[in-house]
Write a structure and sequence with these properties.
By secondary structure, this protein is mainly beta. It contains 1 helix and 11 strands. It is globular, with a radius of gyration of 14 Å. The protein starts with a strand and ends with a strand.
């Protein structure tokens, strides 16, 4: 499927500012995040991996599910897809992901007039 694959962080913008905005500044790492995505139709398993830390969420497009945030907080939400973009409303930010060529582009945007957008570009490996 379109999203399935393993991706390595290639570049990012506003990383420090984003972590600070969500109160997670102490989690900064210089490791390259690996993202593994398994897509089977509308069912996804999405993992973010660095040494000694893995966060995995499973969801189905259009169905309410329980996810876990970077802060290890569990919450209920409905993941949607619009125009080929995955959209997830996390409690502290809005997440979108799309495939462009062999890249996985992820945006995390905090709310408010001083919102911060973390942009991560990941290359398929």
């Amino acid at each position: 499927m379109a999203f399935s694959g393993t991706y390595e962080l290639e570049s990012q913008e506003n990383y420090d500012e984003f972590l600070e905005a969500i109160g997670f500044a102490n989690a900064k790492t210089d490791f390259k995040v690996i993202t593994e995505v398994l897509q089977e139709g509308d069912d996804f398993t999405w993992s973010q991996i660095i040494p000694n830390w893995t966060l995995t969420n499973k969801f189905t497009i259009g169905k309410e599910c329980e996810l876990e945030s970077m802060l290890r907080t569990k919450f209920m939400t409905t993941v949607t897809m619009e125009g080929g973009k995955i959209i997830i409303p996390f409690p502290q930010y809005h997440f979108t992901a799309e495939i462009s060529g062999d890249k996985l582009i992820m945006l995390c945007t905090t709310a408010g007039e001083k919102g911060v957008t973390l942009k991560r570009i990941n290359k398929r490996i």
